Amino acid sequence: MTDSKTPLLDELEKGPWPSFVKEIKQAAEKKPAAADLLNQLELSYKDRIGHWKHGGIVGVKGYGSGVIGRYSDRPDLFPNVQAFHTMRVNHPTGWFYKTDALRKLCDIWDKHGSGLTNLHGSTGDAILLGTTTEHLQPCFDDLSEAGFDLGGSGSALRTPSACVGPARCEWACIDSLDICYQATMTLQDQIHRPMFPYKFKIKVSACANDCVSAIARSDLAIMGTWKGRIQVDPAEVRAYADAGLDIRGEVCDLCPTKCMEWSEADRTLVIHDGDCNRCMHCLNVMPKALRPGKERGASILVGGKAPIVQGSLLSWVIVPFMKLEPPYTELFDLIARIQDWWDENGRSRERLGELINRLGMRHFLKAVGLPAVPQMVKHPRTNPYVFFWPEEIDKKEVK
Amino acid sequence: MTDSKTPLLDELEKGPWPSFVKEIKQAAEKKPAAADLLNQLELSYKDRIGHWKHGGIVGVKGYGSGVIGRYSDRPDLFPNVQAFHTMRVNHPTGWFYKTDALRKLCDIWDKHGSGLTNLHGSTGDAILLGTTTEHLQPCFDDLSEAGFDLGGSGSALRTPSACVGPARCEWACIDSLDICYQATMTLQDQIHRPMFPYKFKIKVSACANDCVSAIARSDLAIMGTWKGRIQVDPAEVRAYADAGLDIRGEVCDLCPTKCMEWSEADRTLVIHDGDCNRCMHCLNVMPKALRPGKERGASILVGGKAPIVQGSLLSWVIVPFMKLEPPYTELFDLIARIQDWWDENGRSRERLGELINRLGMRHFLKAVGLPAVPQMVKHPRTNPYVFFWPEEIDKKEVK
Amino acid sequence: MAKTDIGPPDYKQFLPPIIRDNYGKWRYHEIVRPGVLKHVGENGDVLYTVRVASPRLLSTDHIREICDLAETYCDGFLRFTSRHNIEFLLADEHRVAPLIEELQAKNYPVGGTGHSITNMVHTQGWVHCHTPATDASGPVKAIMDELYDHFTHMDLPAHVRISLACCLNMCGAVHCSDIAILGIHRTPPRPDNSRLPNVCELPTTVASCPTGAIRADMKNKTVQVNDEKCMYCGNCYTVCPAMPIADPDNDGISIWVGGKVSNARSAPMFSKLAIPFLPNNPPRWPEVVAAVKNIVEVYAAHARKHERLGEWIERVGWERFFTLTGIAFTDKHIDDFTLATETFRTTTQFKWG
Amino acid sequence: MAKTDIGPPDYKQFLPPIIRDNYGKWRYHEIVRPGVLKHVGENGDVLYTVRVASPRLLSTDHIREICDLAETYCDGFLRFTSRHNIEFLLADEHRVAPLIEELQAKNYPVGGTGHSITNMVHTQGWVHCHTPATDASGPVKAIMDELYDHFTHMDLPAHVRISLACCLNMCGAVHCSDIAILGIHRTPPRPDNSRLPNVCELPTTVASCPTGAIRADMKNKTVQVNDEKCMYCGNCYTVCPAMPIADPDNDGISIWVGGKVSNARSAPMFSKLAIPFLPNNPPRWPEVVAAVKNIVEVYAAHARKHERLGEWIERVGWERFFTLTGIAFTDKHIDDFTLATETFRTTTQFKWG
Amino acid sequence: MSAEIKERVLAYFREKSKGDKKMFYIKDVVKGLPDVDRHAVQAAVKELLDEEVLKYWSSGSTTYLMLAENFPKDA
Ligand code: SRM
Ligand code: SRM
Ligand code: SRM
Ligand code: SRM
Ligand code: SF4
Ligand code: SF4
Ligand code: SF4
Ligand code: SF4
Ligand code: SF4
Ligand code: SF4
Ligand code: SF4
Ligand code: SF4
Q1: Which of D182, D271, D336 sits opposite B387 (nearest CB)?
Q2: d(Cα B65, Cα B53) in Å, to the nearest integer?
């Protein structure tokens, strides 16, 4: 151990959590690039600073995205990572794999790249971590052959993602996987040929638990919900109570709208559904007893993003409820109108949320043809700086 | 009625609420200015528009404030209100009067003005409504003679005001009246000789019920509060319960921190004072049983204002607790430091709150010498745009 | 020469003896009946306060009548409240009933305490100011006539504080009222290019605009207004008289709800837009009166005891507020000023209506 | 030539038969033990999911090992989660225990379900990005080693989601995490006047600055940074490589708490600043690890069941959070960006600590 | 029609690339042809990209367009 060339990183092989250092070392056994990555990383650990230069690169032929260029700032020391680009491979929706497909990915990456990956990137892509410029096109060709395609990067639609939804979740109010997959397939051009002012992200969660963080991490969030009454199975409610669940304390008292009443005497649960805001809490605690209502659809929200430039935004409700059934025409039409308005009015590097903020929600709503509804706001405005449309004003000439 | 010259205003003599039209008519019996005010107002009611021109006038000799100039835009029709200035008379703290003083004010105003007043203006002054330029100085002389002085206007300290406090309220935690009076007397110069970037308002409420709206309507709000335990008289608590008060429902459940427990069995009330945020609700409902804790003082807040220019602000906590006993040196020193910083850095027509917002709370706190404490915020910042002071940075030269 | 800087008369000389004796030593109070407070001192002393409404705009003769009353029943001691009511202060319980009798005979409304609607804080309007978008005293009178019974009865879930300001300067401090009546303009100012160069400072005028709608036209020493960016606040007119903004056909009243000042239970809150525009319809502003009444009634029917208007709305949700009141929600309710994003709904937690 | 725009493989071909059969027809689930989910279909079918931790940065050989496991126990079906864990999908209950046995033998942590600490969403750091203020994988490894037992045990009041982003771009989307680790710079960028004119666009560079700290120096075709206005966000460097900002001695980590994404009970919330700066101390960032652990422990000791970190803090108050954790409150915790005033305390409702 | 737009797009790039600046946002290009519909400009640009007359250049976060001849070797 004492004569290791990576004494600092070696420390991170210890401990119970799986070690990324072990992964790099494993790849380094076969791949010089991985070995130089390890060495350069050790230098970063010593220097407490990154050693990558600003990237910048073309995509593969015909594409403008899917590749992140990266170059070492010490190619003298680490020639095998002089160029170390990543390829973003669009993951299969829901991150489902059969091993044969995964093995194909591995084989391709052993052939063309460093043998290192991220499963997955935080937008959802399968990240193939580190290759040279020459290998980009051949690697893409092999990927395409194997049935894979690249995801988004740059001023493009980014790889959409979806929660596991109806595949394995009892709460799915929409088919998150199908919606995501259809969007991905329909919007291929937007993913691969960046023509937008900036990035655009779409995420689909099939209920308000939001297991893909759609509300926080996408410009357009599609989130399953329902109308009507929560389906209650009174016998199962009692079964939970019998099993020791404190229904008043753990369910009713934590209901944000306080619309539930548990009567210990009758052992019945009453839900005033008109007050329920479908937060999911009671269903989460008693999945066997409570199920979403029968009329299902999605709320559509826009504007979520990380802080750069004007501060983080959580997405905003713009459509409280939309039925979502294939071919999702209403949804895709709306997305098209939204993107078109953003494309026309957005400045370079201006996300949708920032644009709406700059021009005003009323302009956005008018342009995309949505009515103003109270569900769009936490509360109405507090400042009196109200604009009126010219047509709302009494036209008589003011002298 | 049919041949009244003021058919529209006459409508406002009807109905049970006291009528301002009657007041104007009453004054009009003696005063031509009041008569013309009535007539001009009738025209406004007809035209649906005001008929006053932008004023602007010097105050009385030696003063820069206390008078609001006003001119009719139809002096042709209403010559007696060609000039119709108001004088703002600093009210006796707490708006207490003995009738002899009030009668003196009336006599003076019958002598010099329209015979109309506002008791009081919404900053708190006794407003003498409508006189001519010539009468300003003589009127002031008479007021001074009678023991009255003018209040603030323009870029000055405005007339401070205080809730009735210890004079008639069991909850007063500070002597709102004395503090207000001392501030008014000490800061006479600031009231009368505008030297500030803009207006500055001080209001004092002796508890968090805030009966003078200090938190919403003053640049510097002084609000009484206490430390330690709420004083509970268990017998009186029980008496309220006996009298039918639903202590759990009306008190405990509405306590914002849920720090109260009422045991129906023991008929006792337990308060977890460490969690109490001194909102006043329980004391309001059971004044006979609960009283503020014994260690009393004030929270100091700054920045409140109406919307022009950047939106309304409610005041912000800058000192959670300050003991306030005559001569209030700590308070007046702090006010001086605050005003000095604002005076030095504020732009013209920039209120204190707007300045703090523009330069950052950390600069304000540093300048006035206050430590940052969590009580100052609803929650810590959410954006990562954190400034560090140069002295916090490792000085090693960065190459 | 007159003495300057003497300040207001020392309030202590105006305190009735019972207050001096019990200053800072009150033990509790009760509301004996609407408009009548009974404060009990630690030593058992009892002070009665009788509160009556005032139009605030008072003639000297009327003030003298009030003085007469105070002298007859209160040894000449009285006060005004922070909401312009008059309070008669009595140490002698036996004079309370006779005072009230005379007040009622003279049509002074007695009330405004506890869970009632007290006097409206308001402003100058067409009576004295140069920037109003509506009158102040007129709408106040019309509204309070209609809500009169809520002044004289404590029949509401909690205090309801109604205020009025005749323009966006908000001298009535309507920004934190249960119900706020706010005069608004709806057309941009019209720079008077002939007067403007003489009476206005260009930089100040340009800086006065919250939305940056004003551009200096250096050549002509005047300014230009970008109508699309103007939201008619009138601040430019405050600063520059040559930019009149009043417009009889388009000025009017907006209604705001759910603000509060006290820290009781919930923290202070701003008022929020309920109705963007109602016409100026003097002398009695029927649309405004009806709108305010509707809000009060819906609130009274649905809120729980001690729940201020804004607290009730917070609990049931704004979507419910609009449904129950029948008020239309429009794009104008959605903020588009600098802190707008803070008001957008960033959760799927909402109700259907 | 290779086909373009084929999109990802159709996920349906990767769904195990039991999922195809029960697609959209699941009835409920149970967490059988930490890391093991049991989903029951309307028809009574039962699907087991075994969740294991992953370092996310995976070598192809390791992936092949995972494939081996999936083939042995799951007919080759597996998935990854939105937080980078691996999920083995089993239709056959009898293979669950053997799978877990082999996983444990191979040191795969089984857990991350329910009221546990699951995998950390994180980013590239020094492994691949050009703007990081800290590493990503290293701190994650160090923190998760320490919190390991909370991954394998569901012993917390509620879910705790920890994320890491190595710079303010926040690819780790730490802005809504229970606990967020965020790399920060603390010194302004240093424009390289020789390179800048060639590699950067002046207008874009100037516009990139959130605080307006960058001024174009047209004459020299470069830019100047006003150090007093710069808060080191690094956005200019993203846009203009000739403005390096990394600084070994002053870069480091800030810690944020109380964010959440789900709408369960409370609405989604942003994370708030807890600790403005901790040094970059590789390889194991002991200060950061200790700080995170402290927050988790204080939370675990005080929160109620189902109460997320942010919900707990909201209930007890931020002043109490700082007291209980012993974290120092500084002027840096007070916002000074565009929405700052919204975060100032506009009520006297607060606790002493 | 589309050929004409392509020609003008190309002319735009040639003209604007004379100085130090070689990379442009699609928005710049659209602004450069104010009389042409935005979508038509985008379509023309895509065709030019397919023909490899233009090339994308991406920083990963942001995408630019440039003449193929100006595309940097590696940097
Ligand atoms: C690879 C990845 C991090 C990871 O390790 O998982 C990543 C890596 C980069 N991101 Fe990201 N972002 C990644 C997901 C995100 C996310 C999370 C998400 O999509 O859910 C966010 C926050 C959500 C959002 O978009 O707001 C995110 C917000 C940013 C931002 C800030 C954008 C903003 O509007 O605030 C930038 C900066 C920029 O675009 O200039 C950025 C920029 C970058 C760049 C391209 C660096 C740059 O400044 O040009 C990074 C390249 C790193 C490298 O060398 O590989 N990345 N980036 C993620 C993409 C992998 C994938 O495709 O699956
Ligand atoms: C008389 C009074 C209204 C009333 O009928 O009660 C009043 C009347 C005027 N106010 Fe006010 N303000 C009055 C209390 C207020 C209050 C309430 C308060 O002080 O508690 C406010 C809101 C609190 C605040 O200060 O933020 C208030 C906020 C304004 C503003 C907006 C200031 C801001 O920073 O947003 C202006 C506009 C300005 O200063 O340019 C203003 C300006 C004016 C002017 C001077 C008009 C102008 O634009 O120059 C008005 C003169 C009217 C006249 O002709 O008499 N007045 N003004 C109040 C003063 C009486 C008194 O001295 O007692
Ligand atoms: C006389 C006056 C103070 C003064 O110096 O003039 C006053 C006096 C009292 N107030 Fe007040 N308040 C007075 C204006 C206010 C204001 C300011 C305002 O409305 O502009 C507020 C803040 C209003 C707001 O939140 O928007 C105010 C919020 C309170 C509260 C808190 C109410 C709440 O639940 O939110 C109480 C407590 C209570 O009544 O239970 C209170 C309680 C009281 C008590 C009971 C205090 C006491 O023990 O003597 C007094 C009699 C109240 C009553 O009317 O039933 N007072 N009180 C003011 C009378 C105004 C009027 O004529 O109606
Ligand atoms: C597998 C996964 C979805 C996917 O498509 O990959 C998933 C799956 C489930 N989630 Fe989730 N959630 C997943 C990420 C998330 C996220 C996103 C994130 O953390 O980045 C969230 C939002 C987190 C937040 O609020 O910050 C999320 C918020 C929830 C909640 C709400 C928790 C709450 O009380 O706030 C539930 C309900 C519950 O567990 O009671 C839930 C419940 C579930 C259930 C029980 C749904 C079901 O019936 O099958 C699944 C098992 C949960 C478990 O781990 O105990 N899931 N879940 C993700 C697993 C991530 C991991 O590896 O740990
Ligand atoms: S978001 Fe809802 S439907 Fe989707 S996996 Fe999570 S809990 Fe299930
Ligand atoms: S979903 Fe949420 S709001 Fe609706 S009843 Fe259940 S806990 Fe209450
Ligand atoms: S603010 Fe408090 S102390 Fe002052 S009068 Fe009102 S209730 Fe009493
Ligand atoms: S003062 Fe308010 S917070 Fe304190 S115990 Fe009473 S009701 Fe609760
Ligand atoms: S609110 Fe406006 S119009 Fe009314 S008095 Fe104040 S400044 Fe004048
Ligand atoms: S009215 Fe207000 S918004 Fe319009 S130009 Fe004047 S200052 Fe600007
Ligand atoms: S968070 Fe910053 S440093 Fe980390 S990967 Fe994203 S852009 Fe790069
Ligand atoms: S680091 Fe951020 S704040 Fe500093 S100059 Fe660059 S963009 Fe501006």
Answers
A1: D336
A2: 19
